[in-house]
Amino acid sequence: MDLQQLRKNIDAIDENLVRLFERRMEIAAEVAAYKQQNSLPIYDSAREREKLYDLSQKVEPGHESYVTALYSLLFELSRSEQERIINPVSVLADRIGEAVQDTDQVFPERAVVACQGVEGAYAQLATEKLFSLPSIIYCNTFESVFSAIDSGLCAYGVLPLENSTAGSINQVYDLMMRYPFFIVRSARLKIDHCLLAKENVEISSIKEVYSHEQAIAQCTEFLKSLGCKVTACENTAEAAKMVAESERSDVAALSSRNCAALYGLKRLEDSVQDQGNNYTRFICISKSLAIYPGADKTSLMLTLPHRPGSLYQVLSRFYIHGINLIKLESRPLPDRDFEFMFYFDLEAPVHSPAFSQVLRELKDICDDFYYLGSYSEVV
User: Fold this and answer.
1) What is the rounded distance in angstroms from the CA atom of residue 163 to the CA atom of residue 192?
2) Which of 72, 94, 206, 290 is most exposed, with the fewest beta carbons within 10 Å of its own?
């Protein structure tokens, strides 16, 4: 039998499968109506487990995993259809729609904004990239930024979330679990670290380098070549300030170019990061939900049931509805053994029906669901 005939045979089988699939979904709709009338939950884990076991016994050896994968997806599709029928209205989707209508059409140029660090910090540069004329409140810690917004001291805060070389800033992720807030915009900032020291200091005399732990991680190879002591401090601008105010002539800082002029320091070496394509992503957060025009990204945080397949259930919903997942991060929950908070970034227009459907479905398959905002990114 040639390939063309084999493909014709597959096409004939597919025609039958499509008709059977449509019939299966029709019955799933009838099941949804029954569950709604009798106040039954959509998800029946025992039924699905027994069904998968039974099906795996009916196929030839070697095909068990294939039939399990196929029917796991069919179960997800069935639950999605039942969810659409039983819960046609989403409180969160309605709230997002109201936020879209109530938010100003233009992102504010002037605002009181909190960021961590001192004058010259990368967070300051990110703030000025997001706002044309910000009034900046400098905070000692990341938590102080959250506290400033939570207390009403300022309307916005700017925080680093991840770096293309050193990865995620875990402390910020942990704080995101503790404070109520919404992301209203983000920005990508090119990070270019320089080795700064006082005038008349040569690189050969440097015995100690100050910088933030993220900057240190981004310049590992260069620091190895120096062979000196490395000391972490609150941020890169604080490091430059410490060097400028120090009485020592054998210290230097990993910091930005603008900190050299700001604190009267000399650039001993430029662009000392390990990777030339070194970017940090900053988020702008607010206590109030606001969705500005052009929002094409959404961030969520979820805690999932501690059982096999719970993460698959979430990921399959994105796949079913054609939503692109651009980031997945997990952080351990401090009060639960071996359980995690999952952070998701999605690429999806807030007006799309698929987006509303996913929000509706995820709330019912998660232990905890946090919508962090929909926003655009300044590049």
Assistant:
1) 12
2) 94
Residues with Cβ within 8 Å of 12's Cβ and at least 6 positions away in sequence, in order, are none
Strands 297-303 and 167-168: unpaired
- Distance (Å, whole) CA 371 – CA 139: 26
Question: Rounded CA gap, 359 and 379, in Å?
Answer: 27
* Dihedral angle of Cα 240, 215, 209, 274, to the nearest 10 degrees: -130
311/332 Cα distance (integer angstroms): 15
Tell me the catalytic residues. Answer: 280, 282
**Which two tokens mark 251?**
């210290």
Would you give the distance in Å from CA 61 to the centre of its chain? Answer: 41
For 138, phi and psi rounded to 5 degrees? -90, 135
Burial class (CB in 10 A: 0-12, 13-18, 19+), 293: exposed
Tokens of 257: 């170019």
Residue 60, CB half-sphere, CA atoms under 13 Å: how many?
0
Q: Looking at residue 63, what is its pLDDT?
A: 93
Please determine, for residue 229, whether its predicted confidence score (pLDDT) is greater than 90: yes
